[in-house]
């Protein structure tokens, strides 16, 4: 599978009850975190955690992040806006989306609704 993103939307994989961020976060605060200038606690409270370093709006040219991902049986993939991942813990994401079987569309719909209700 090929993943791609621009901005602060995150793409996660849940495999064997472990959550892994696959996308690149394009914010001022995340850049400082990756460089080791700030730690995770500082990142979560940073005043510029929502200030994008890359985005789509108004851009003439966009240089998105791309990566290849090997898909395995029972992997779950989540595409989340900051409105979800800022309010839903990693443990809760793992709890909701980890499975040893395939979900039906109806089950996924219910889980996504639960994510939104928890987030707000």
Order of helices and strands: EEEHHEEHHH
Q: Got a strand count?
A: 5
Oligomer: single chain
C-alpha Rg (nearest Å)? 15 Å
What does this structure look like?
The chain has 120 residues and is of the alpha+beta class. It has 5 helices and 5 strands. The chain has helices at residues 28-34, 40-45, 82-85, 90-97, 105-119; strands at 2-5, 10-15, 18-21, 65-68, 76-80. The strands form 2 sheets. A 3-stranded antiparallel sheet has the order 3-2-5. The chain is globular. It starts with a strand and ends with a helix.
Summarize the structure.
With 120 residues, the protein is an alpha+beta fold.
Question: What secondary-structure arrangement, pairings included, does this model have?
Answer:
Blueprint: E1 2-5, E2 10-15, E3 18-21, H1 28-34, H2 40-45, E4 65-68, E5 76-80, H3 82-85, H4 90-97, H5 105-119
Antiparallel strand pairs: 1-4, 2-3, 2-5
Task: For the structure shown, list the relevant keywords.
120 residues, alpha+beta, 3-stranded antiparallel beta sheet, two-stranded antiparallel sheet, 33% helix
